[in-house]
């Protein structure tokens, strides 16, 4: 489903991704763990082409992200084409980034109508269902600032789902939440995992990784240190670095 | 150390607990502000003196004021002022929006052009610029459309193309655009970058990102400054009187040039400026309320 090959990325002098190879199978949940600054978020953002990679390829469903190959050169896609690709990938931000001047419902309806040109009336029905599904059905006409962090993040998940994405990407979805609100957001993500969505989740919640992940990826210093099923990586890590991190987080 | 001993001595010195009322129903005495009342008094006295002066000083010449305040000449002059304001605002902010987007674009070429425009039109005093436009026919007697350095298709006489009013609108709009551009740019960069990023992540088309997501939120900080600009343009139109355009201030000058009742006629202009500025301020309140939606709990 997602195929990442030899991805490098630098911000100025600082090399954040130093050659990443990763395959995410359809219908699986991949959880990326790692200390801050290890490049997890950058990797996630480059799957959506929110960051341009310097080297390497990323494919979703065989489709090259951000570039078109002609001969043995890669040509950057036009803005419009990139936006079209993005509308097939749901992205959930750490800080929710709900549109503050739009109600919860308008937040969900906006992109399917303007990016995918679907009919507003149909999208509104779908949006209400999605808000219901993430447990904020009664908040449809409320502005984001009137919602708790957990509710905002659940609206943001509904917003991402409304695009009927092939893949869902979560960038530390619970890091900006009060501890007692973390559970309600993780429950929604677990629910989606049970329904067979393909997801990549960057998080610090080890418990969540153990329960939901099919694959756990541990990153440090721009590299994937190890990856595998949770019981291997979390309970019996092969690498010293992974062991040190997990013992500190638990 | 010393604080603990201090509090314990206070406890010891205080009355026994049984004398005090229960903690739950102790009355609260609000702080008093005697100096506020002194301030109010001083302001009221000054105000009374001023109003007294307005009424009793014959120099204000109220009969003349009322004689001219609602005459047809003044109304048509006021209409010219209002028109100058409307055209100046609409054209100025439209052009300003374009320049602001250019400055924020990723193209270094557009950035430099926009910066250069703002630099130029902020550097030239409005009155100087207006006089240039007024005398444009001295530099270019006619304008023509055609291929640069090649054949020409259509000719216009410069004086026919813009009369004095056109020159004034052009000058005001070009000047206003430079300031409007910076205000709009300020509003746009005040919107959290996460908003554009979320819009981009959702695949919302670029133009729609701007008009649906960024601009409505930028309006919150554009509006107070923007309203300032409109009001200052409205009063600033009086500068156009140097081009003998019959707007409010010019017309008032013409009248007092004839009857030498300077003060009451200046008051005619003043009161009309105040009335319309008040209306603009009220309008601002309602427009701001609309764009503030979603920002309060």
UniProtKB/TrEMBL annotation, chain A:
InterPro entries, per database record: AAA+_ATPase (IPR003593), ABC_ATPase_HisP-typ (IPR030679), ABC_transporter-like_ATP-bd (IPR003439), ABC_transporter-like_CS (IPR017871), MetN_ABC_transporter-like (IPR050086), P-loop_NTPase (IPR027417)
GO molecular function: ATP binding; ATP hydrolysis activity; ATPase-coupled polar amino acid-transporter activity
EC numbers: 7.4.2.1
Keyword Acetylation among UniProt keywords: no
Origin superkingdom: Bacteria
Main location: membrane
PROSITE patterns: ABC_TRANSPORTER_1, ABC_TRANSPORTER_2
Domain ABC transporter: 2-246
Subcellular location(s) per record: Cell membrane
Gene Ontology CC: one annotated term: plasma membrane
Tagged with keyword Repressor: no
CDD domains hit by this protein: ABC_HisP_GlnQ
Membrane topology per record: Peripheral membrane protein
Keywords: ATP-binding, Cell membrane, Membrane, Nucleotide-binding, Transport
Reactions catalysed according to its record: a polar amino acid(out) + ATP + H2O = a polar amino acid(in) + ADP + phosphate + H(+)
Name of protein: ABC-type polar-amino-acid transporter
Organism: Kribbella sandramycini
UniProtKB/TrEMBL annotation, chain B:
Xref: SUPFAM superfamilies: MetI-like (SSF161098)
Keywords recorded for this protein, A-Z: Amino-acid transport, Cell membrane, Membrane, Transmembrane, Transmembrane helix, Transport
Localization (cell): Cell membrane
Membrane topology listed for this record: Multi-pass membrane protein
Coiled-coil regions listed in the entry: none
Domain named ABC transmembrane type-1: residues: 78-284
GO CC terms in record: ATP-binding cassette (ABC) transporter complex
One record GO biological process: amino acid transport
Ranges annotated as spanning the membrane: 37-55, 75-100, 112-141, 161-181, 262-283
InterPro entries per record: AA_ABC_transptr_permease_3TM, ArtM/GltK/GlnP/TcyL/YhdX-like, MetI-like, MetI-like_sf
GO MF annotation list: transmembrane transporter activity
Family as reported in the entry's similarity comment: Belongs to the binding-protein-dependent transport system permease family.
PANTHER family: L-CYSTINE TRANSPORT SYSTEM PERMEASE PROTEIN TCYL, MEMBRANE COMPONENT OF AMINO ACID ABC TRANSPORTER
Identification of the protein by name: Amino acid ABC transporter permease
Organism classification: Bacteria, Bacillati, Actinomycetota, Actinomycetes, Propionibacteriales
């Amino acid at each position: 489903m997602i195929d990442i090959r030899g991805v490098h990325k630098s911000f100025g002098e600082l090399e954040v991704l130093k050659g990443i190879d990763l395959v995410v199978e359809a219908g699986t949940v991949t959880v990326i763990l790692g200390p801050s600054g290890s490049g997890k978020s950058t990797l996630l953002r480059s799957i959506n082409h929110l960051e341009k990679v310097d080297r390497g390829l990323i494919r979703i469903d065989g489709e090259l992200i951000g570039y078109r190959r002609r001969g043995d050169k890669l040509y950057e896609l036009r803005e419009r084409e990139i936006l079209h690709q993005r509308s097939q990938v749901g992205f959930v931000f750490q800080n929710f980034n709900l549109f503050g001047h739009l109600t919860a419902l308008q937040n969900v309806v906006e992109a399917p109508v303007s990016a995918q040109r679907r009919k507003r009336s149909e999208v509104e029905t779908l949006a209400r269902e999605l808000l219901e599904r993430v447990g904020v059905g009664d908040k449809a006409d409320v502005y984001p600032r009137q919602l708790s962090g957990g509710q905002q993040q659940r609206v943001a998940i509904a917003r991402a789902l409304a695009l009927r994405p092939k893949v869902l990407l979560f960038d530390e979805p619970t890091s900006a939440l009060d501890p007692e609100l973390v559970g309600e957001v993780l429950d929604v993500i677990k629910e989606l995992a049970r329904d067979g969505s393909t997801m990549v989740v960057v998080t610090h919640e080890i418990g969540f990784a153990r329960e939901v992940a099919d694959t756990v990826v541990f990153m440090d210093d721009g590299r994937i240190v190890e990856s595998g099923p949770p019981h291997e990586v979390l309970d019996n890590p092969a690498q010293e670095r992974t062991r040190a991190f997990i013992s500190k987080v638990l | 150390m010393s604080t603990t001993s201090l509090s314990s001595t206070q406890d010891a010195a205080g009355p026994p607990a049984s004398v005090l009322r229960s903690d739950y129903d102790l009355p609260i005495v609000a702080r008093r502000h005697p100096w506020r009342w002194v301030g109010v008094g001083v302001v009221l006295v000054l105000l009374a003196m001023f109003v007294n002066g307005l009424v009793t000083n014959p120099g204000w010449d109220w009969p003349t004021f009322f004689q001219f305040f609602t005459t047809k000449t003044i109304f048509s002059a006021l209409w010219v002022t209002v028109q100058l304001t409307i055209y100046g605002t609409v054209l100025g902010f439209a052009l300003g929006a374009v320049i602001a987007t250019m400055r924020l674009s990723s193209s270094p070429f557009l950035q430099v052009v926009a910066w250069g425009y703002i630099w130029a039109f902020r550097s030239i005093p409005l009155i100087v610029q207006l006089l240039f436009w007024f005398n444009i026919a001295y530099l270019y007697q006619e304008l023509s459309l055609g291929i640069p350095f090649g054949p020409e298709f259509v000719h216009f006489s410069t004086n026919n193309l813009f009369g004095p009013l056109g020159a004034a609108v052009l000058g005001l709009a070009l000047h206003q655009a430079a300031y409007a551009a910076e205000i709009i740019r300020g509003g746009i960069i005040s919107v959290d970058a996460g908003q554009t990023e979320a819009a981009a992540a959702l695949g919302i088309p670029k133009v729609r990102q701007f008009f649906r997501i960024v601009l409505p939120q930028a309006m919150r900080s554009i509006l107070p400054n923007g309203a300032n600009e409109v009001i200052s343009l409205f009063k600033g139109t009086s500068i156009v009187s140097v081009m003998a355009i019959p707007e409010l201030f010019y017309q008032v000058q013409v009248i007092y040039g004839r009857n030498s009742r300077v003060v009451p006629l200046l008051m005619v202009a003043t009161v009309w400026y105040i009335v319309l500025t008040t209306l603009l301020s009220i309008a601002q309140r309602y427009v701001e309320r609309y764009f503030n939606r979603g920002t309060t709990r």
